[in-house]
Design brief:
Layout lengths: L1 E3 L6 H10 L7 H20 L4 E8 L2 E8 L4 E6 L3 H10 L4 E11 L5 E9 L7 E5 L2 E2 L3 H11 L6 E10 H10 L4 E8 L1 E2 L5 E2 L5 H6 L6
Parallel strand pairs: 1-10, 4-5, 4-7, 7-9, 8-9, 9-10
Antiparallel strand pairs: 2-3, 5-6, 11-12
Helix pairs in contact: 1-2, 2-3
Bound molecules: uracil.
């Protein structure tokens, strides 16, 4: 299932438009903040799909019958570009356990690339809901590989994917590989370049959030 959070008019569209804007992009802090805000709204929306329990809470004046989250999800992200969305998710799922994965494009002389994963730090994920964040689903290759690594650690109850912008081919690939996952995106674009950049997209999310890296 795919949920485009821009289908309805909301502040999400404002934040996505700022993420895309070459002028606003000069403000790195705003870029990170907008990713964080999208992560927060996605957390709120996903929370409606989770399991809740009744709990009696003692107030100074009596007992209130409240609903509280049964179990916190595990929040996973792909370094480094996923950190902004991840922070937003963690602001709301404030007691969640976290998984971190490195995934990067290892470029070959012919211009193609493989996805290389070299590090995974993961809590117990057996039977848990996992929310994995990655700002851009372009080809979807790194996301799918990251999920495969996570699934090797245990039987995940449900996978939610949170991104700022997804490309249609990437969505199709991810859902072909992970048909039971739900993708929550800030917006959807149709084009992708030969080098795997989404068009119109926003550029390189990691560089815009944290500065240009040396290509090696
Ligand atoms: N990663 C990015 O940061 N941008 C894209 O357009 C595609 C992948």
């Amino acid at each position: 299932m795919v949920i485009n959070l821009s289908d309805q008019h909301s502040l999400i569209s404002n934040w996505v438009s700022e993420l895309r804007d070459v002028e606003v992009q000069n403000d790195r802090m705003r870029f990170r903040k907008n990713l964080e805000r999208i992560g927060e709204v996605a957390a709120y929306e996903i929370s409606k799909t989770l399991a809740w329990k009744e709990k009696e809470i003692t107030t100074p004046l009596g007992i209130a019958n409240c609903k509280v989250l049964l179990v916190q999800p595990v929040l996973a992200t792909i370094l480094r570009a996923g950190l902004g969305l991840h922070n937003g998710l963690l602001n709301y799922f404030d007691n969640a356990e976290n998984a971190f994965i490195t995934a990067y494009r290892k470029h070959k002389p012919d211009g193609t690339f493989d996805i290389s994963i070299e590090y995974l730090s993961c809590p117990e994920i057996d039977g848990k809901v996992v929310i994995i964040s990655d700002p851009m689903i372009a080809t979807g290759a790194s996301l799918v590989k990251a999920i495969q690594y996570l699934k090797a650690e245990g039987v995940i109850k449900k996978i939610h994917i949170v991104c700022a912008i997804a490309c249609t081919v990437g969505i199709e690939f991810v859902l072909r590989e992970q048909p039971k996952a739900t993708i929550w995106c800030g917006d959807i674009d149709d084009e992708i370049t030969a080098k795997g950049y989404i068009v119109p997209g926003l550029g390189d999310a990691g560089d815009l959030a944290f500065g240009q890296k040396i290509q090696s």
